[in-house]
Design brief:
Length: about 170
């Protein structure tokens, strides 16, 4: 029976990864302005990470959280490769905090902590690479308060979806 549950877990993890990748590719089919796309896709990705951790657990969802910035880099949406591990760590922290505090008020701190990690990491990359001012401004904006908004919206959307989805899939 253990083998069947493991197979089922991998199938669901793959399903959530596929959903996240579809959301990440919305920018290719919907020609929306950059900021709107960032808020839409970011919120949907955060929702998907929460749903994935609720249904598959921390390890499979952490793999998804690591793969998403790699794909974003390959798409050209994350232009600096040094940001890949920083975004991956931010995703994993978000997932861990949401999982741990899902039924507590502390869950609302997860987006703030994720944003702090992303912002400090981005400042480190900017300093380390001595990025041009314009590039630094864009990167630091992307890793600042919009991450709080998309993280909060991800929690709200996940709560709505979890009410509509079966308890176990």
């Amino acid at each position: 029976m253990q083998g069947k549950n493991t197979e089922k877990l991998f199938v669901y993890a793959a399903l959530f990864l596929a959903i996240a990748l579809i959301f990440q590719n919305i920018r290719l089919v919907l020609p929306l302005p950059g900021p709107i796309t960032m808020f839409l896709i970011g919120s949907l990705l955060n929702m998907t990470l929460i749903l994935a951790v609720c249904y598959t657990g921390v390890m499979p969802t952490s793999v998804i959280g690591i793969l998403l910035p790699i794909v974003a880099f390959m798409q050209g949406q994350l232009a600096i490769p040094f940001m890949i591990p920083i975004v991956a760590v931010g995703n994993i922290i978000y997932v861990l905090l949401c999982r741990r505090f899902w039924r507590k008020k502390f869950v609302w701190l997860a987006p703030f902590i994720k944003t702090a990690v992303l912002y400090v990491g981005c400042l480190w990359v900017i300093h380390m690479l001595q990025l041009p001012e314009k590039t630094a401004a864009i990167l630091s904006f992307m890793m600042s308060w919009p991450q709080i908004i998309t993280g909060l919206l991800g929690i709200i959307l996940a709560r709505i979806m979890l009410k509509k989805l079966p308890k176990k899939i």
